[in-house]
Amino acid sequence: MEVIIQPDAVAACKLVARQIEKLVKQKPHAVLGLATGSTPLPLYAELVRLHREEGLDFSGVRTFNLDEYVGLPSGHPASYRAFMQENLFRHVRFAASHIPDGLAEDIPAECEAYETEIRKAGGIDLQILGIGSDGHIGFNEPASSLASRTRIKTLTPRTRADNARFFGTPEEVPHHVITMGIGTILEAGQVVMLAFGEGKAAAVAGAVEGPLSAMNPASALQLHPRGVVFLDEPAAARLTRSDYYRWVFDNKPDWQK
Ligand code: GLP
Fold this sequence. Notes:
Elements: E1 2-6, H1 9-26, E2 31-34, H2 41-54, E3 62-65, E4 67-69, H3 80-89, E5 96-98, H4 107-120, E6 126-129, E7 151-154, H5 157-163, E8 176-179, H6 182-186, E9 190-195, H7 201-209, E10 227-232, H8 233-236, H9 242-250
Parallel strand pairs: 1-10, 2-3, 2-6, 3-5, 6-9, 9-10
Antiparallel strand pairs: 4-8, 7-8
Helix pairs in contact: 1-2
The structure holds 2-amino-2-deoxy-6-O-phosphono-alpha-D-glucopyranose.
């Protein structure tokens, strides 16, 4: 896996935005996999800027979000639909934007339909991921099957506590979510994981340099032929080979850039 360490989140997100720009220019009908949480906010701000100031056209691009809470009333400000609307979709027009429906009456059918929609779109070209402090990607909590598909999951107390800041009270954080599976994520053409801040350092070290293990779901990226991890300095602090990763990045041949 390629590890790119940048001075801060904004610098890292600018590089990722350029990668997305390259993809969209090469393939105007590209399919993007999107993530929520604080981590991708500078990336979405940069995509909005590229759209507004440089005319980057997303009108042929379709998007699929990783996950959604189950049971939040429609329009709830902490729902991932509201998050995406606020931070990206109200600024940039896409051809279609898919988010799992956390209010579906038949959740297994909704999960199956989500997988079918991804397949019908031709698969995800580039998937953006954040990482939970316990190593979760999407909402695939530790011990999730590495072959899992879109399904309902139960959040751990740690993830509910981590995400409580988006809700009025910790009790309001739902226990259940719909998330793409790790198997679903690994089928994307490229996977780009972002992690910023010291709170992510242990999970990142486990994902990049630890053993492949369902106990650190992000370690599944080790199985992906085109997995890239973008970090700021604090998130990279517990890597043992960061000098090597920096050297590789600084000495990339032109054809690889
Ligand atoms: C949530 C999301 C993940 C995200 C994680 C980290 O659990 N389901 O996709 O990566 O939070 O959140 P943050 O970026 O706010 O640290």
